[in-house]
Amino acid sequence: xxxxxRTFEFAFPRNPLVMGIVNVTPDSFSDGxxxxxxxxxxxxxxxxxxxxxxxxxIGGESSRPGAEPVGAAEExxxxxxxxxxxxxxxxxxxxxxxxKPAVARAxxxxxxxxxxxxxxxxxxxxxxxxxxxxxxxxxxxxxxxxPRTMQEAPAYGDVAAxxxxxxxxxLRRIRASGLAPEQIVLDVGIGFGKTxxxxxxxxxxxxxxxxxxxxxxxxxSRKSFIGSLTGETNPACRLPGSLACACWAVWAGVQIVRVxxxxxxxxxxxxxxxxxxxxxxxxxxxxxxxSR
Length: 292
Ligand code: 8Y4
What we know:
The protein is of the alpha/beta class. It has one domain (2-289): TIM Barrel. It has helices spanning 38-50, 72-89, 101-109, 126-134, 159-175, 196-204, 224-230, 239-251, 262-282, and strands at 2-5, 8-11, 17-23, 55-59, 94-97, 114-117, 137-141, 184-187, 217-219, 256-259. An eight-stranded parallel beta sheet has the order 8-7-6-5-4-3-10-9. The chain has a two-stranded antiparallel sheet with strand order 1-2. β4 (55-59), α2 and β5 (94-97) form a beta-alpha-beta unit. The protein binds ligand 8Y4. Ligand 8Y4 is lined by residues 30, 59, 63, 97, 116, 118, 139, 141, 187, 189-190, 217, 219, 222-224, 235, 258.
């Protein structure tokens, strides 16, 4: 299994990739918008790469539940200066977290290699054509509703079945757009139109999303369902829960984890990998853990 993102190529199976999060939003609740000043955001991105991030994801529109959308011009004003400098100063792929084709296009022109499309192309069919034309990596994430409405009493029969059906439908349409399978990454979208129970059901059944033979990305870092389960109301204090989810996810077949805390995640995953590799060598891997 190969992932292509412009000049970058990742061959799987391999050790899991860590995607570091760089928020350039004034209302970002986990880091309080500390990185709105371009130089601070750039420094933060460089630090994440220094800590071992394999990719960095830059976003200028909050995906926070209930967040109001921003216009493309404002989003570009926030992310482009940061993205340009980060691209010039790191050797890892830079991802643009956006719902908007216009933002994705400008970000690719500025050197981004991956489109992290949390809307999965709901707004405009141009997104797939833009990704296809650039040969960019493309993250197809499941979201119910929009960031503004997604947490209004989400209900599913079988959440994993519905996310899988969504991937089937989107992948069928993507195939017609010129986007190559090797550019695509799948993501169940933890927290996007899901209750804590839905998130747990998705995490418990990650093996149901490996059948497309595409890398899986998972974003759990500091998310509110960790707060729901633990009572921890401060997102910055949710690192232990985030690490538990990252290790579980990698054991269950996830290849890319999107995180705020890169150094800590790398350390946790190093141990998870070493234990899994040893279990494989001893032939004792069973239960929910898929052998990679
Ligand atoms: C604390 C910190 C509480 C962060 C909530 C949050 C994903 C994503 C986001 C994801 C992909 C977030 C942009 C939400 N989550 N992209 N983006 N997958 N592909 N919330 O799970 O981090 S933003």
